């Protein structure tokens, strides 16, 4: 059984005080859940504050939204993976569509970041996904194949166990549009097959694949009912405690 993950990406939102307050609410709710892993990704400025405000045995994990692929050096404005570990992070989000589209990150750079993050002891949430143009041109599968194979290039099996993939159709991020559960399941099944072809069937079955793209309280139950959807990477709805707690408490099957 793959333990579901509900992760909140706060992007460029929340002051330190706002972030620690929201994290405290979410940590209290997460403490009542033993069948789901809950992760929040505050902005860099709030990471240490959020970690410091949580009890040592908190069920809430803290992720960074990005990192660089070097451990130190003259890289003004960048953050090393070891710095995130020092701040108390357990995870880092890499390859988010906004990093790819707005900041021009390519698969080769993202792969270097994946290796650096894993070497530092972080768990990785690797984001992949096609644009609307790529989907309409029927290039979705080619795009996903490239992003998965290049993003995971060079990893050993034990490293792969510390990677989570987040499928986020770019056309559904921040637009209010959401892939139907059928569309999401189709993509997740394809991605799991890619992982199987690259690393083996058992590794593919163990891989957790999250859906990201305008996840809301209203659609989480339908998404989580699908066989290959193992959780969600939540954007805007993670900024409000009530909404994110409802998503954390998605309807369990069985």
TrEMBL record:
SUPFAM superfamilies: Triosephosphate isomerase (TIM) (SSF51351). The active site is at 96 (electrophile), 168 (proton acceptor). The gene is tpiA. Belongs to the triosephosphate isomerase family. It catalyses: D-glyceraldehyde 3-phosphate = dihydroxyacetone phosphate. This is Triosephosphate isomerase. Transmembrane segments: none annotated. Involved in the gluconeogenesis. Catalyzes stereospecifically the conversion of dihydroxyacetone phosphate (DHAP) to D-glyceraldehyde-3-phosphate (G3P). HAMAP family: TIM_B (MF_00147_B). Pathway: Carbohydrate biosynthesis; gluconeogenesis; Carbohydrate degradation; glycolysis; D-glyceraldehyde 3-phosphate from glycerone phosphate: step 1/1. Substrate binds at residues 9-11, 174, 214, 235-236. It is found in: Cytoplasm. GO terms for molecular function: triose-phosphate isomerase activity. Keywords: Cytoplasm, Gluconeogenesis, Glycolysis, Isomerase. InterPro entries: Aldolase_TIM, TIM_sf, TrioseP_Isoase_bac/euk, Triosephosphate_isomerase, Triosephosphate_isomerase_AS. Its main location: cytoplasm. Gene3D superfamilies: Aldolase class I. Its EC number is 5.3.1.1.
């Amino acid at each position: 059984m793959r333990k579901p993950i509900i992760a909140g990406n706060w992007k460029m939102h929340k002051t330190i005080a706002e972030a620690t307050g929201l994290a405290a609410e979410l940590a209290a709710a997460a403490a009542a859940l033993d069948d789901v892993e809950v992760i929040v990704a505050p902005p860099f400025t709030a990471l240490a504050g959020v970690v410091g405000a949580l009890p040592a045995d908190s069920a809430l994990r803290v992720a960074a939204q990005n990192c660089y692929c070097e451990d130190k050096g003259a890289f003004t404005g960048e953050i090393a993976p070891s710095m995130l570990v020092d701040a108390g992070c357990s995870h880092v989000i890499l390859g988010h569509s906004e990093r790819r589209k707005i900041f021009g990150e390519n698969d080769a750079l993202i792969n270097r970041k994946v290796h650096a993050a894993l070497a530092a002891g972080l768990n990785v949430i690797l984001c992949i996904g096609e644009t609307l143009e790529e989907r309409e041109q029927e290039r979705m599968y080619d795009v996903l194949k490239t992003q998965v194979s290049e993003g995971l290039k060079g990893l050993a099996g034990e490293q792969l166990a510390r990677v989570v993939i987040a499928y986020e159709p770019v056309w559904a991020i921040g637009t209010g549009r959401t892939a139907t559960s059928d569309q999401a399941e189709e993509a997740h099944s394809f991605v799991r097959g890619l992982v199987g072809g690259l690393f083996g069937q058992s590794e593919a079955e163990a891989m957790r694949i999250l859906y990201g793209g305008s996840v809301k309280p209203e659609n989480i139950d339908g998404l989580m009912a699908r066989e290959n959807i193992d959780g969600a990477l939540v954007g805007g709805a993670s900024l409000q405690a009530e909404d994110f707690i409802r998503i954390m408490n998605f309807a369990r099957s069985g």
